[in-house]
Design brief:
about 450 residues, mainly alpha, two-stranded antiparallel sheet, 20 helices, 4 strands, about 5% strand
């Protein structure tokens, strides 16, 4: 007799101790990227962590624990926000509130789009964002970040030789490789062993941390210097600034480009949740039908970030990968993660301790997590039976993959076009949507006799 699958569905509440440890694993997963975006854009790290956690808690409560997502800082907005906060590459702290006004505007855009989607229904949205678009975007999100993972694993992100050129370190790669292998082994061989089987990323990070500690790569000085308690540097949007509309027009439109990303994340996670529910002998949750609500929650999260002074956010593919690996989709666990994230904004020593996690350890984890994001896109297209013998599907997928993954090779992942720096992932998604719309507006069956005959014959 087949044993029922083991895991947690969104409404499930693990015991308190398990909830805290599983929640901390989520925080560990989102922490490096969320902090990095804050550093790159000049935003306060404490505020970004607090706002990220608050956005997650609000989203989980507002969805009735139905949509398991963690909201971290989005890479898609980096170029636009830096253009406002760091003109010429130097932080102008007084301009951060200007960027906040733009982030609030992205929240309004997302809420408006989510409201429209709820009115028109998922079926109509699927015509504009079919599985070939959302699946391809998911692949791009994971694979385009591959170089980021390898840069962290090898040291080329941070180390420089005497001439200032990026330099790899065999010591960094050793730590990253040990972290990666241990995390993979834990995720495979600890399956079905209760709580410990749901903590492969935390366990892999712990092994990597101790290896790095043994190699002298962990610096505890920032922990000693950090205050126990601190007040994050909250700031409020500069709505009265004459340049506000410039910031809004620079930042808000990117929200449209990130909608396919958010949609892909929800469709991916919904697929795996339903598979787990079947294995547990429980009813499917059909989370993917909540796409309108999900987009509205994205907007509420950005509104929270913009008002408080946090970075523009998105629901994190890394945390989705963690949930897929561990089969833990518990909403209460994500609420615990959000609360921990909020506390990190106030507890200086705790935040500093988490920041002692060496970059190569994060790189080792990222290789696995980013790869799983990409493969979730493949799984989505297989599940939805995308026909790659159809030239239309091939055209959409091919364009998204090459523009998204190829564009990531440019500095900062931005494609230089028409005097602008266009985020590669968002640009690839928009191009895929446009190509798909062309086929919707001008159906090939009306212009190609062979296709018209095939359709008439039911083939």
């Amino acid at each position: 007799m087949q044993q029922p699958a083991i895991g947690y569905l969104p409404p499930d509440r693990p015991p308190l101790g398990a909830m805290i440890s599983l929640g901390f694993q989520h925080v560990l997963t989102m922490f490096p990227a969320t902090v990095l975006v804050a550093i790159l854009t000049g935003f306060d790290i404490g505020v970004t962590l607090f706002a990220s956690g608050l956005a997650t808690v609000v989203a989980l409560l507002a969805s009735g624990m139905r949509i398991p997502m963690y909201y971290g800082s989005s890479f898609s907005y980096i170029a636009a926000v830096r253009g406002i906060t760091m003109p010429g590459g130097t932080l102008a702290a007084a301009r951060v509130p200007l960027a906040q006004a733009g982030i609030v505007a992205t929240g309004i855009v997302n809420v408006a789009v989510g409201f429209i989607v709820r009115k028109i229904g998922k079926e109509r949205l699927d015509r504009v964002l079919p599985p070939v678009v959302t699946g391809s975007v998911a692949i791009v999100i994971g694979i385009a970040l591959g170089k980021v993972a390898l840069d962290m694993a090898t040291g080329t992100c941070c180390l420089r030789d005497a001439s200032g050129a990026p330099m790899a370190s065999s010591q960094w790669w050793t730590v990253a490789a040990i972290t990666l292998v241990c995390t993979i082994l834990f995720s495979v061989y600890l399956q079905g062993r209760g709580l410990i089987g749901m903590l492969p990323v935390l366990l892999g990070a712990a092994v990597g941390y101790f290896v790095a500690l043994f190699m002298g790569m962990v610096n505890f000085e920032p922990v000693r210097q950090a205050a126990w308690l601190r007040m994050p540097n909250f700031s409020f949007p500069a709505f009265g600034n004459p340049e506000m509309w410039k910031a809004v027009l620079a930042i808000a439109p990117i929200a449209i480009a990130t909608i396919p990303e958010s949609t892909a994340h929800l469709y991916q996670i919904g697929l795996y949740i339903d598979r787990l529910a079947e294995g547990m002998g429980r009813s499917k949750l059909n989370v993917s039908r909540l796409i309108g609500l999900n987009l509205m929650l994205d907007g509420i999260g950005d509104f929270i970030n913009g008002v408080l002074g946090g970075c523009a956010g998105t629901n994190y593919g890394e945390n989705n990968s963690l949930m897929v690996i561990t089969r833990n989709y518990s909403g209460p666990v994500l609420v615990a993660a959000g609360v921990i994230g909020m506390l990190l904004g106030f507890v200086g020593k705790l935040a500093a301790l988490v920041q002692t996690l060496p970059v190569p350890v994060t790189g080792g984890l990222a290789i696995y997590l980013f790869g799983v994001i990409g493969l979730q896109g493949v799984a989505l297209m297989i599940s939805e039976k995308v026909d790659f013998f159809d030239p239309r599907q091939l055209a959409v997928a091919a364009t998204i993959l090459v523009v998204g993954i190829g564009g990531a090779a440019f500095p900062g992942g931005n494609i230089p076009l028409w005097g602008m720096q266009l985020p590669s992932i968002a640009t690839s998604a928009v191009m895929g949507i446009i190509i798909n719309l062309v086929f919707l507006i001008f159906p090939p069956e009306q212009y190609v006799p062979m296709l018209a005959a095939r359709k008439a014959g039911g083939n």
